[in-house]
Amino acid sequence: MEVLLHLVIIGSGVIGLTSAYYLSSLGYKVTVIEKNNSSAMEASIANGSLLSYTSGPLASPSVLKMLPQVLLGLHPSIRVRDWYNPRFLTWSLAFLMECLPNTFSANRLTLINQLSESDSLMKKFISQHPFNFEYKKTGKLYLYSSKQDFDGALSFSKVLKKDYGIEQVPLTRDDCIRKEPSIASVNNLYGALFSPVDAIGNCKLFCDNLQTVLEKPPYNVKFLFKTKPVEFILNARKIERLVLNNGKKISCDAAVVTAGAVSNDVTRLLGFRIPVYPLKGLSLDITATNPEVLPKISVIDNRARITLAPFGTNNLRVAGIAEFSGTSTDIKDSHLDCVKKQVLNILPDLDIQHIDAFCGNRPMTPSSLPLIERRHFQNLYLNCGHGTLGWSLAHSSGKKIADLVSSELGNSRK
After folding, report:
1. Which of 17, 120, 162, 245 is the most exposed place for a label (fewest CB within 10 A)?
2. What totals of helices (H) and strands (E) does the chain contain, helices first?
3. What pLDDT sits at residue 59?
């Protein structure tokens, strides 16, 4: 009698859920285990809501220029508190190597390929599952404060158009303000690029609705919350069972690690680490008493490294402050004040009624490229390390891990 191959996914953020979607779509029996009470309670709830299909790696030559500011603690949005941590020092040296121009260019093209595929898959997904997650194709404005930065971005936009058919529209300061009047008060605005392909969406709402879809036929995915592995039982180089924190054991034909910034907590149980380091990100949901001053288009200030996205009817989702500080998710009042000040520099007429603050650790690799591969064992797969782009890369990463598992395990029956 044939039975379905059983796959266990460790982590129920947006990457774990899309992995479950594409794997169960191939007919595999899927169980998702999650240490929190529900899905998408860490980085997936605390992102900037942007679906950024034209973004580049964090590891870039421009970061090298910021290094003196970062080292002296003077950069407005990038903070480092982990200099004492040997793991961070090793990771940061690898990160600096990825910032070299030729390496950055290769990584950027790889990332654009993955993002472009994710955009196409998102459109297909929406046509098949038209549930609400506040998705809008707003486009996005990249703001530049200098001619040098603008010209560098414009040069790559020509590559996007030529090689990928992705259009970015160059705008002067006056053009930019006509397109998005809310940013008229931005100081030192030289110009901007407008990316029509970019969108926004409520990642947490998407995850909750996707979980509901997955729990029903034809997917029949099982979710186990407040659950995490504490031991793997092996047969030679193959995982046979997971021992869970509640004492129960679960057998599997393969395991997929989608645990984001804490993926090393899982791989460490198997005797190895991966080059994923947590980058704490702060996001704010700002409710305005005067929503007419809010931008209608998503905005990224390239100098301050802050993003603003329209969110709901009267809200603005803001993402800013990136800090290397281990696994802490504490929200500091000084960081809140800093981001609030940056927002008011862009939108000085904004009257803030209420702020909800979220904090999540982004799983960063030195290259900013995710790890989607089989590692060390015959049936252990990784789908982690998506950094600040987990929401944007979710569909292409879920599809890629499903294709990899299928190519190596064969069809869904044994």
Report:
1. 162
2. 10, 20
3. 92
Overall average pLDDT of the 212-224 stretch: 97
CB 191 within 8 A of CB 171: yes
Task: Please provide the average confidence, as pLDDT, over all residues in the chain.
Answer: 93
pLDDT in tens, 9-49: 999 999 999 999 999 999 999 999 999 999 999 999 988 89
353 and 320 in contact (C-beta within 8 Å)? no
- pLDDT over 80 at 312, yes or no: no
- How far are the Cα atoms of 148, 149, 172, 399 from residue 145, in angstroms, in the given order? 9, 7, 11, 38
The sign of the CA dihedral 173, 175, 299, 110 is: negative
CB–CB of 180/141 below 8 Å?
A: yes
* Integer Cα distance of 233 and 377 in angstroms: 12
pTM above 0.85, yes or no: yes
**Are the C-beta atoms of residues 49 and 136 closer than 8 Å to each other?**
no
Q: Is the model's pLDDT at 1 over the cut of 70? A: no
Amino acid 377 reads F
Cα torsion through 250, 254, 255, 256, rounded to 10: -150
First to last CA, the chain: 9
Contact 175, 194 (CB under 8 A): no
pLDDT at 414: 66
SS3 at position 354: strand
Give the 3-state secondary structure of 213-279.
HHCCCCCCCEEEECCCEEEEEEECCEEEEEEECCCCEEECCEEEECCHHHHHHHHHHHCCCCCCEEE
In sequence order, what are the beta bridge partners of 7? 30, 254
